[in-house]
Amino acid sequence: MLKKNTIREFREILGSNNCWNRPEDVICYSYDAAYEEPVSPDIVVKPGNYNQVSKIIGLCAEENIPLVIRGAGTNLSGGTVPLSGGCVLLTTGLNRILEFNKEDLYAVVQAGVITAELALEAEKNGLFYPPDPASMKVSTIGGNVAENAGGLRGLKYGVTKDYLMGVRFYDAEGNLIIGGGKTVKHATGFNLPGLMISSEGLLGVMVEFILRVIPKPEYSKSLMVVYNDIIRACETVSEIIASRIFPATIEILDNFTIKAVREAIKTEFPAGADALLLIEIDGHPEVVNKDFDRILKICNSFNGTVRVANNKDERDKVWEARRMALSSLSRLRPTVILEDATVPRSKVPAMMKAIQEISKKHDITIGTFGHAGDGNLHPTILTDKRDRDEMKRVKMSIDEIFHAALKLDGTLTGEHGIGFLKAGYLEGELGAGTVNFMKKLKHGIDSKNILNPHKMNL
């Protein structure tokens, strides 16, 4: 519990309209898209300018108040929720696109800008901001940087880290820190933008970013490939990459996910398919058509039936249905646990087989979809956390999914982060020496450990 004087100081900084501490007002900020039991913050604040951010940090440091940074709350690993009360700082009041430079191809945006709004601004200017997490209509750029968000186009265009040129953030004492800049080459000082990528709010409060934008592709072609065997679909993906073809996107959905999407919305997804691949190729028309012919031959060789989108409307409907995968699955059971174990692309078939075996072994319902082209699968467990016996099997399944990914030279998380849900697995992937190094870095920067404490076990 915060002292009355401390609450008064928060209100003096922010005004009463941007500061909440009543239980009924703060309870919703004890949740993100993860599934663990909630812990309410003591206070929630929404700064509207950088000076307020600095003062909030200073007050938290002075009073030893844990400080958790939160954007839209779409986080899937418990990274944006408090574990011991404290203060939740919302970045949604910092929501302006400050500059869009068409000559030098960059945008300067605040942390609370919605990802889709930046993508739309780029499109208006005939340009392209590729990172496109499935939550892009609600997720914020600050959260994207904190988690190194990826998305459907990661195969060809990379993820958030590939577009971050500069960052402004406040350290644990409330000092403004500037890293990177607007130039293509920048070697002044430490690579602070690189440090803040995937930092999950543990190293500073990020408020502003310089992001690279690129020319919009001239032409694109979208296709849906239907399979009666999901392993053949996975083998198709491996063969496309091995053939040195890099589509913008290769997405996969298993039979269970296809059915869930069909039940939730009207879609062209075929009812009886064991798996779908959704592929988009973009670039120069001649290259796109050449790659399409090669992909068509590969798909046919693995017994895939190809359907091509005839127009933009058909294309948009297919991709919108893909983005509905998680919400469609979420309708089916009270608790949904979305993982993102990621493996080298050649090992996608082996990872899919492992997920199927784990599901059968523990009698757990798993719908799997994801970004097969970059090895990032999303096995989604449907359960009810009130069922203790089932949850025991769920936790064993999660353990085995992570161990399977690591055994295949993969990683615990491709784009969702560690937070606290995956913290116990961190040493298994990185080793004790690396985790200890991260702890020294964290506590050297934040000696009082007020910035998102207890996450990553740091």
Describe the model.
- It is a single chain.
- The chain is 36% helix and 21% strand.
- The protein is of the alpha+beta class and 458 residues long.
- It has 4 domains: 4-90, Uridine Diphospho-n-acetylenolpyruvylglucosamine Reductase, domain 2 (2-Layer Sandwich), CATH 3.30.43.10; 97-215, Uridine Diphospho-n-acetylenolpyruvylglucosamine Reductase, domain 3 (2-Layer Sandwich), CATH 3.30.465; 219-407, Vanillyl-alcohol Oxidase, Chain A, domain 3; 422-458.
- Strands 15-12-14-13-17-18-16 form a 7-stranded antiparallel beta sheet, sandwiched between helices.
- A hairpin with a 5-residue loop joins strand 8 and strand 9.
- The mean pLDDT is 96.
Chain-wise SSE layout:
Blueprint (H helix, E strand, L loop, with lengths): L3 H11 L4 E2 L2 H4 L16 E3 L4 H14 L3 E4 L16 E4 L6 E5 L4 E5 L4 H10 L2 E2 L12 H7 L6 H4 L6 E7 L5 E5 L11 H5 L8 E8 L1 E2 L3 E9 L2 H13 L6 E6 H10 L10 E9 L1 H17 L3 E4 L3 H12 L1 H6 L4 E4 L9 H15 L2 E7 L4 E8 L4 H20 L18 H5 L1 H14 L13
Parallel strand pairs: 2-4, 3-4
Antiparallel strand pairs: 1-2, 5-6, 6-10, 7-11, 8-9, 8-10, 12-14, 12-15, 13-14, 13-17, 16-18, 17-18
Helix pairs in contact: 1-3, 8-10, 8-13, 13-14
